[in-house]
Amino acid sequence: MNPRTLSRALAAFALSASLISAAYAQNSAPQPVPIVSAIPEPQDRPLTTAMTLQVDATDIDRAIFHVRQTIPVEQGKPLILLYPQWLPGKHGPRGALAEMTGLMIRAGGNALRWTRDPVQVYAFHVDVPAGTASVDVEFQFTAPVRESEGRINVTPNMMNVQWEQVALASLTLLALSACATPETRIRSALMDAGLSKPIAACMADRMVERLSLVQLNRLNGLKKLGGQDIRKVTL
User: Fold this and answer.
1) Where are the domains of the chain?
2) Which CATH fold topology does 52-170 show?
3) Which parts of the chain fold into alpha helices (H)?
4) Coil, strand, or helix at residue 177?
């Protein structure tokens, strides 16, 4: 055989052997297991029973929000509670789950067992006894107390409640249309003071995240103003 031909044949054999070896090594390496979420798609439907939400924001020195929530249970379906994960403007799954702590879930005064989903960590599976109409939820949200921890939204003179941080939602009942929202309470107080409904609604939408605790408490007294000029009132 021509030496040049032999050289080319040996080179081709070495290359093919190398490719076969690389392919075998790749196929025999450990392969990742696909992550499959068992959480069904959420359903946005009106609540048949009101969900209540109480947020105690008086612990301003430690910037801790104490949350109490009553969530209706849909009979015949598993109860999965969701903490907000995807938020407008965040550009990623950046819900503040790391600052949520102390989760307790009860029904009829008895503590219920809950587990965090192993794939979707923003979801909590709750073992609910048959016939349970609602569950009582408690947890704390620890807001930043220094700039290195994040945006400061609690001081003695300012309260900026991020409502998505202080509430859970049932997977099958996401709509909050039956709840009395903070905007509703502020709008009602402004209308009681004599403002028209459109103006009160516009002001409430802007005021709800900007008022301090002292200012919110002053809203309770607006109805007493009666015929006074609301434009001269300072909260």
Assistant:
1) 52-170, 182-229
2) Immunoglobulin-like (2.60.40)
3) 3-28, 182-192, 197-207, 213-218
4) coil
Q: Say how many CA atoms lie within 13 Å of 197 toward its Cβ.
A: 0
Separation between Cα atoms, residue 203 and residue 219, nearest integer Å: 13
Stated length of the chain = 235
- Three-class secondary structure of residue 20 per DSSP: helix
Tokens of 12: 């081709």
Task: State the Cα–Cα distance between residues 210 and 31, nearest whole angstrom.
Answer: 51
Report phi then psi at 110, rounded to 5.
-100, 135
Look-up of token digits 């392969």: 31
Tokens standing for residue 65: 């929000």
Residues near 89 by beta carbon (within 8 Å), at least 6 away in sequence: none
In tens, the pLDDT along 162-173 reads 888 888 888 765
The tokens of 27 are what? 């196929």
Tens digits of per-residue pLDDT, 85-133?
A: 887 777 788 889 999 999 999 999 999 999 999 888 999 999 999 999 9
Please name which of 91, 92, 69 lies closest in space to residue 82, comparing C-alpha atoms: 69
pTM above 0.70, yes or no: no
In the predicted structure, residue 75 carries a pLDDT above the cut 70: yes
Interatomic CA distance for residues 123 and 171, integer angstroms: 9
